[in-house]
Amino acid sequence: MRLVKLIANLGYGSRKEIQTAIRNGWVTDKDGNRLKADSKSAHEDILFDDEPLDPAHGVVILLNKPVGYTCSTKDQGRLVYDLLPDRFRMRKPVLSSIGRLDKETSGALLFTDDGTFLHKVISPKSNVPKIYDITLDRPLKGDEATIFASGDMMLENEDKPLKPAELEVFDETHARLTLHEGRYHQVRRMFAATGNHVAELSRSRIGSLGLESVAEGEWKILSDAEKAKIFE
Ligand code: URA
């Protein structure tokens, strides 16, 4: 791909702005040699403003979403995209979140520009478990784990029972829930159906991928090994 198009598609600017950046010498190779619009360098050898270019198509980003941010590109208020560099919003193909978290839920949220990867993560065939840490307003009654694991729990206004989910109880008001599907407000609705109320909710894991090295509000580009952990 021509250099101008390649850099513009990564969201660094319009084609005109990238042409200007090239003319100004902001686009170089690793040895500091200025590149021209028709230069042919490998993606990983190109620097923009002395920084390596973002990865090409196929990028997967893990964000540790704080409470108070909406998973949308255009709602009012704070958006998850505000936590990522502006250029990520201008990438072509676009960067989409893989599933959503409620505004009041924190934790692991993935983004990708790779539609095939996105579908693989959300496909029931992949059966990627999502693990949520929960603080409840009221003490657990004791039968929640059995109800959630039954495979016949029905949520209001739905016509299919929930898949079995595993509840690990830590104490009266703290638990961890593993889901194998993603329905609207699922965790909150499951506890509401048992007469409880979720006070705090955080997704701590997607598959075997955790948030260990990503602080709240921070993000990282996943390596191939980290991407593979989603399916482990
Ligand atoms: N379940 C919920 O209720 N909310 C989320 O954000 C994710 C799962």
Task: Write up what this structure looks like.
The structure is a single chain. With 232 residues, this protein is α+β, with helices and mostly antiparallel strands. It folds into three domains: 3-52, Structural Genomics Hypothetical 15.5 Kd Protein In mrcA-pckA Intergenic Region, Chain A, CATH 3.10.290; 60-124 and 208-229, Pseudouridine synthase I, catalytic domain, N-terminal subdomain (Alpha-Beta Plaits); 130-206, 2-Layer Sandwich (Alpha-Beta Plaits). 19% of the residues lie in helices and 25% in strands. Strands 4, 5, 6, 7, 8, 9, 10, 11 and 12 form a nine-stranded mixed beta sheet that branches. A three-stranded antiparallel beta sheet has the order 1-2-3, with no helix packed on it. Helix 1 (3-9) packs across helix 2. The longest helix is centred in the first third of the chain and has 9 residues, at 15-23. The radius of gyration is 21 Å and the shape is elongated. The two termini are 34 Å apart. The mean pLDDT is 96. The structure holds uracil (URA). Uracil (URA) binds next to helix 5.
Gyration radius, to the nearest Å? 21 Å
Query: Which consecutive residue ranges, at least 5 long each, have pLDDT under 50?
Result: none
Morphology? elongated
Residue share in helix: 10-25%
Oligomer: single chain
CATH topology heading of the largest domain: Alpha-Beta Plaits
- Terminal-residue CA separation: 34 Å
Bound molecules: uracil
- For the record, the CATH class of the largest domain is Alpha Beta
| Helical stretch tally | 6
- Helix-strand pattern: HHEEEEEEHEHEEHEEEH
Strand content: 25-35%
Output the CATH homologous superfamily of the largest domain: Pseudouridine synthase I, catalytic domain, N-terminal subdomain
Mean residue pLDDT: 96
